[in-house]
User: Fold this.
Amino acid sequence: MSTATQENPHTARQGYDRDLRVAVLGVGMMGQDHARRLATLTKGAQLVAVSDVDAARTDAVAAEFGVRALHDPLAAIEDPDVDAVVVATPGFTHEDLVLRAIAAGRPTLCEKPLTTSPQTSRAVVEAERALGRRLVQVGFMRRFDAEYERLRALIASAELGRPLFLHCAHRNATTPPNFSSEMLILDSVVHEVDVARFLLGEEITAITVLTPGRTSHAPQGLQDPQFVLMETASGTLVDVEIFVNTTVGYEVRTELVAERGSAQIGLGVGLVRHSAAGWGGAVPGDFRQRFGAAYDTEFQRWVDAVRSGAGVDGPGVWDGYAAAAVCAAGVESLRTGRRVEVDLGERPDGLG
Ligand SMILES: NC(=O)c1ccc[n+]([C@@H]2O[C@H](COP(=O)([O-])OP(=O)(O)OC[C@H]3O[C@@H](n4cnc5c(N)ncnc54)[C@H](O)[C@@H]3O)[C@@H](O)[C@H]2O)c1
Assistant:
């Protein structure tokens, strides 16, 4: 039974002393992965329903997990037997689903991006502010990765002094069909935007995107790689090499250079094998391998936060809005070749 006093279920801070009943909206690649996580791993949660605009896919995934198949994703949000939702649909659908969830008072874990434009993300920030409590967490899972957490703690300790540079590399083996030059910023660099804000604890104020010579492995018309330079409010520089047709694997590295030393994460030296063939390790195939444990932690902490009544434990709507604004400026810089400044406006009090 729910523990909350239910004067107004839309605005009351609500906790649960039973398992949280979760529906996953959108059961493609990420949604199926998250459904499996909720059904098999996350404590204090029950996967109770899945919902996708593809009815056959909804039925197949529901049957696989033995849960309800709900064919209308908007109605699923308001279903009385659903306490909270995970949004794992394509980014352009997030605005409608998340605004409906806020209107219904449903705690939501929304995969990145929060929405696809700064304007619509700002509308979500305002909707949550009007509600008066934190309800939406954004799926920037790297914040739950142990290496990023250690780097953040090192920066916060000031042991190495003031951060001067963050050098980031983000590489994928190949891209899916129809991947556009803008998507390198909107789908990939968006993670670096969020980790830079997370690690440094400040906003990004300008972005410049440079376009070096293309790899011969990039599909026709795709500007790959790109080099992104971000400036923070205090003057730290963050550079990102984004290269998504390396033919190698999934590699994400970050190096901090500070006044009294440097630190690196993402070297991938977990297991070093020696054999007659030589020595070395393995390059992860994709983000589900590299960040699998981070997704697990993200889900556990989200479920714990919703059950406790806190609603969110991690990046919130402001973080989603900031990432959308920086990425929109990045796309403008990619198109114009110019440095573009970012002005987020005023941050509402009390929102994450
Ligand atoms: N955090 C990460 O590391 C990470 C990695 C990959 C993808 N993502 C994000 O996850 C989300 C889903 O990506 P994906 O790769 O799983 O996509 P996908 O195309 O594999 O799956 C999307 C699913 O959503 C369904 N769908 C479309 N519109 C819908 C709607 N209005 N309501 C309900 N279902 C709808 C589609 O039929 C499909 O089954 C995207 O926002 C993407 O950016 C995050």
About this structure: The chain has two domains: 20-142+295-315, 146-286+323-341. The first strand starts at residue 20 and ends at 25. The pocket of nicotinamide-adenine-dinucleotide is lined by residues 25-31, 51-54, 57, 73, 88-91, 93, 111-112, 139, 141, 287 (CB under 6 Å).
